[in-house]
Amino acid sequence: xxxxxxxxxxxxxxxxxxxxxxxxxxxxxxxxxxxxxxxxxxxxxxxxxxxxxxxxxxxxxxxxxxxxxxxxxxxxxxxxxxxxxxxxxxxxxxxxxxxxxxxxxxxxxxxxxxxxxxxxxxxxxxxxxxxxxxxxxxxxxxxxxxxxxxxxxxxxxxxxxxxxxxxxxxxxxxxxxxxxxxxxxxxxxxxxxxxxxxxxxxxxxxxxxxxxxxxxxxxxxxxxxxxxxxxxxxxxxxxxxxxxxxxxxxxxxxxxxxxxxxxxxxxxxxxxxxxxxxxxxxxxxxxxxxxxxxxxxxxxxxxxxxxxxxxxxxxxxxxxxxxxxxxxxxxxxxxxxxxxxxxxxxxxxxxxxxxxxxxxxxxxxxxxxxxxxxxxxxxxxxxxxxxxxxxxxxxxxxxxxxxxxxxxxxxxxxxxxxxxxxxxxxxxxxxxxxxxxxxxxxxxxxxxxxxxxxxxxxxxxxxxxxxxxxxxxxxxxxxxxxxxxxxxxxxxxxxxxxxxxxxxxxxxxxxxxxxxxxxxxxxxxxxxxxxxxxxxxxxxxxxxxxxxxxxxxxxxxxxxxxxxxxxxxxxxxxxxxxxxx
Length: 581
Prior knowledge:
22 helices, seven-stranded mixed β-sheet, alpha/beta, 581 residues, single chain
């Protein structure tokens, strides 16, 4: 019986249509490559669907974390049979040993050279499973000690329990956790203390922004958020979970006996001669408390308007508004999109001894010299609105209000902007222009807003492609079509010579393909025409037309510029932006 074609299998599975297959075959004739790769490039099918179809075609089982087959056995010494470097270079991961046969997940089981090399390295017969490269690399990160080496060192040296001991040697005189004094794997100190130190030290070394530790029915999960994505890491044993939570509570000066209510705290880490502020959130769940630690490393943040991601015109417009004597500047975007970093970079640029700058924040994430920063405390009546009213008696020139959440704060911001102060604030809206009707919904008079508003902006964060391993490629017809419609470039570059880049993965970026993030913006300086529209009806379509006339770009157009210059991939940019309807 003849083997079914891959495309035929995918059509029968209803993953693609006959029409899509025909287009993919035509694309294959023009560009070359395997039909599966063409379907993925054309975005007709996912990598997972192609892998499953290939598995059906070859009669090889499909392994994924969802079906729990892509889960290496940790007690068979697999990491010694297949070295980590070989696994990463070949995109393979060992799964288990049975009857002197090694089961291995790989992206291309038909690659005879890789299979032969696996036999030579392991000294065993190979049973192949098929999986996607993305999933294999994530499992490699979690399984091998290269990613969790500090944590694994402590776990490997774990004795019968939490062996007591003092933690005084890792604390500074002013109560900071001094990781420069920590020797991972030393025999002194309680096991929970050593694990917390190892987890934090490993997280900092991997440029992690958030540490997630949570308990389920039978296991503990540890994840690091790196460049916006969560990655699993080696987790401690269940019997150490409560001790780890208690240790973090002690560092954060929280109530270790309270396990029914959420708690928030903070502490400071001393590491490599820099201070890292750590915000702690503990929330009770059905299986126990969940811990999230946000690492605010000022040393890893660029407070420079030339380096955060502005295009030239966007920077000029923002600084033009930021150097105005009075008015209101609004920056929008979801939580964690870098709004605070952008506003701090702007304040860092305009600050001088002649200007009195004051900020109201919740919380103060980064302490900046030359700026008076105040953290709001609603429990004692210090809110954004009340703090802003008291600021007006402090003779400020520039005021930053961390977030405009309600009518009271919005009115206070507008009053301050109308009485000779420059006010910067943030809102949670999907686009810059949506900030205008949002304020009107907060009962701000449109004519007052029109006379006060200087600039509205929005931002998102895209992952930066690793410069060491990013791979150039010719954009697909669909990408070129989107680029030509949405980039607003004039003149339009020669599309036949256009090159985009995609991630690959190398040791420099921990095989993620990305390293760091940059912001993309839409920055709209308020023109006279926009003021007339705001004072009349604040109609969004009319505002978009006025923005288009001014030549400003939306988020998608700004993102295409980052793609064209090789800063990020089209896939990553498209995943975090939306087209304007």
